[in-house]
User: Which sequence fits this backbone?
């Protein structure tokens, strides 16, 4: 047995559900389906029940206890009735459940220890004719049931555990990683987990995979996996370039040096104040933190806004002449944009380059603007023949930037409104330590020990 | 009379030689020519004497007292004999003169208060057949005598005084400005001084002027004036882009607001230590000076080496992460590369971006280099999917850079050898003040009051 095979065998023992687990889940799903069918029989409309998701496909990782049931209504049913009937069936199946809302309401609850979602959808003829995103899901299950066998399903479990271990599993907008469906398609595409790793090692982004050979749209993403049920959809649309690279890195590492580590999420020891101070001293940088109460929105809204804000703050600082070493954004009770700067203070003057002297009116206007201004050095002519002045900076400190200029940078909507009302705090240098610990002790631990 | 005409009239009174000055100069030139012809008569070879330069063309500025005589020998005369005969004639004409050496020796001395150069050259059929650069000069004089009249010659004097006033007169490699011959061609081309200013105001570099409409080479210069005596030569080759822009700036200023100031070189009051410190405080920058004894070479060798060294030091500092606000290079007894920095100190770590993870062997090698190095942060993967480490900087201070890294940057040859032997000093911050004053008090005065 190769090293890789031995490692994989040990991982299989962790991720493969036991026969008892399978039987229990199948029995629970069956009882739920019967309940749903009984409720449907009471309705003045025909509908059927399909089990979807990883537990329908046999690709769930041992210990996962999610059952997803979709109730398919005729596609000509008005939306309000679909919602009403769906809620009615949901309440009958999960009397202790509650409604949640995606594109339309669905019912979520627990049943015999399983987390159950009961989702109404339209029974359309093809995934390309869907009326709502959830209508597509049954087609995914059908496609995979046709293409997966027990061996591939087991390899999907390995793949999921691998991606969890390296921190890129999940198509939520915080992770920007790989969905379960994407794992399934990749394992099917390459014919197994190890073959998939071998293929990933050679990826040259942008990578395009089209299992059904029917791509009809072009995608500007580092990884494109055309949905076999919809030629215009990239299943990997949310996967970031960094996560594509991370998978590639770990595929290469695992193949060179197989280890169970890749299948185990890192959990760095939380960082205490002394350790954080020691890193800041060692790096001799200046940290800046913009801190606010986390906006009360779901994670898939919060994180894109937070990342956009981080990028906006970094861009703004750079445009003002600050040298950013690294930046991050985190959320817990509070949300934080954390920026590490080479220096938190700039000279009093900045070089302001104007137009080439040769551009006539425009150049003349620049010259006239500054010619009689005793507060600037110049205008003079640079080596390229452009007018230049050295003028006083508006903003000389990173803290000053964060306190007065955040309104000028691109921020996420809910963060922008907080900033507009001054409802945020700015910390610079050592003050950052007390401000962020212990709330962000895990995030800071990862920050000071960054890994591929 | 327009404002411009009134200003120009006053300048003419300063720059036009008086009839007495003209007569005296013509008489002196005539006597020198007779002496030279007498000496030639003693030689076993035929030759003639031509007066060249601005005093031959009537374009000299009042007070200039230069007479240039060229002795033209047959083009088949061996070079050693040309040199011997030239020196013989020179010694006869200027018994108190001494030899200098350009492409070949010539004699320079004084005669009745005039500075006289007596230069041997070959009498070739056309400027394109020259054997040495000086052979071209008589053709320039012939061309201009055909194209200049008294009015244009007077406007050439205005042009020269204007370019002197704004600091761009002289084709030496320190100034990188306009030669007298170039002034003459421009005034002829545009038909007068004011017409020239009007044309310059509209220049869109690169500007190409070809008086004889015979250009045969292409030139990568911001200003091209094809020599009417040589289709492959750009008379304006040494003029820098900055000087083209400077002329354009002042042409525009003069036409908008005529003033005699443009015809008067600026002479800023020398800067004392208190004033320099006050500027440094006000700008809140850190000055750095690399100082050495000026290499003992002529200015046309020294300044290109000095400018190259300045550019090399600036590039090196930037490559090491320093933010350079402005830089300069000056020479007197000592030579100095002066650099003004936003900050003289950088963080302990620097971001070192490696290859994209996807590039296989190259990426793997980068990862392996740092994977087990406890001294770095990372390797991790950046947003673009590249490996990154944050590693300790080799050089954290600008002074350290100047003391240990100058050998790694492009320097002028004679400065490079000084640096190689450690024969230079580095000053940072306030120490620069005492180190550079009073020797560079004028240069520093101009530096802290930069003008177009």
Assistant:
């Amino acid at each position: 047995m190769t090293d890789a095979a031995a490692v994989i065998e040990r991982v299989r023992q962790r991720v493969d559900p036991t026969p008892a687990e399978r039987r229990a889940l199948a029995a629970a799903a069956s009882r739920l389906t019967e309940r749903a069918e009984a409720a449907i029989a009471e309705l003045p409309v025909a509908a059927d029940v399909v089990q979807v998701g990883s537990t329908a496909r046999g690709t769930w990782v041992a210990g996962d206890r999610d059952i997803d049931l979709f109730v398919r209504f005729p596609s000509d049913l008005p939306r309000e009735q679909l919602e009403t009937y769906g809620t009615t069936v949901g309440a009958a199946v999960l009397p202790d459940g509650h409604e949640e809302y995606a594109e339309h309401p669905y019912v979520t609850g627990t049943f015999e220890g399983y987390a159950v979602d009961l989702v109404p959808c339209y029974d359309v003829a093809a995934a390309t004719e869907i009326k709502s995103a959830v209508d597509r899901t049954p087609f995914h299950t059908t496609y995979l049931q046709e293409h997966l066998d027990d061996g591939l399903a087991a390899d999907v479990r390995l793949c999921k555990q691998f991606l969890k271990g390296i921190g890129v599993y999940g198509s939520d907008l915080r992770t920007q990683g790989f969905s379960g469906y994407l794992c399934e398609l990749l394992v099917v595409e390459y014919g197994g987990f190890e073959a998939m790793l071998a293929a990933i090692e050679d990826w040259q982004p942008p990578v395009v995979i089209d299992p059904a050979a029917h791509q009809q749209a072009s995608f500007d993403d580092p990884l494109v996996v055309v949905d076999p049920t919809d030629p215009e959809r990239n299943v990997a649309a949310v996967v970031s370039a960094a996560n594509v690279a991370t998978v590639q890195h770990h595929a290469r590492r695992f193949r060179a040096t197989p280890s169970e580590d890749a299948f185990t999420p890192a959990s760095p020891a939380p960082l205490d104040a002394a350790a954080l101070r020691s890193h800041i001293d060692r790096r001799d940088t200046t940290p800046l933190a913009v801190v606010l109460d986390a906006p009360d929105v779901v994670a898939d809204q919060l994180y894109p806004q937070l990342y956009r804000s981080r990028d906006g703050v970094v861009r703004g600082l750079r445009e003002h002449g600050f040298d950013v070493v690294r930046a991050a954004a985190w959320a817990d009770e509070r949300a934080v944009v954390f920026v590490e700067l080479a220096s938190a203070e700039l000279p009093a003057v900045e070089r302001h380059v104007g137009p080439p002297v040769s551009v006539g009116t425009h150049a003349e206007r620049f010259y006239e603007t500054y010619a009689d201004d005793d507060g600037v050095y110049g205008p003079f002519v640079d080596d390229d023949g452009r007018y230049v002045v050295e003028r006083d900076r508006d903003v000389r400190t990173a803290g000053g930037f964060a306190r007065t200029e955040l309104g000028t940078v691109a921020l996420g909507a809910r963060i922008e409104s907080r900033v507009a009302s001054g409802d945020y705090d700015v910390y610079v240098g050592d003050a950052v330590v007390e401000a962020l610990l212990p709330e962000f002790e895990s995030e800071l631990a990862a920050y000071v020990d960054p890994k591929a």
Notes: Chain B has 16 helices and 14 strands.
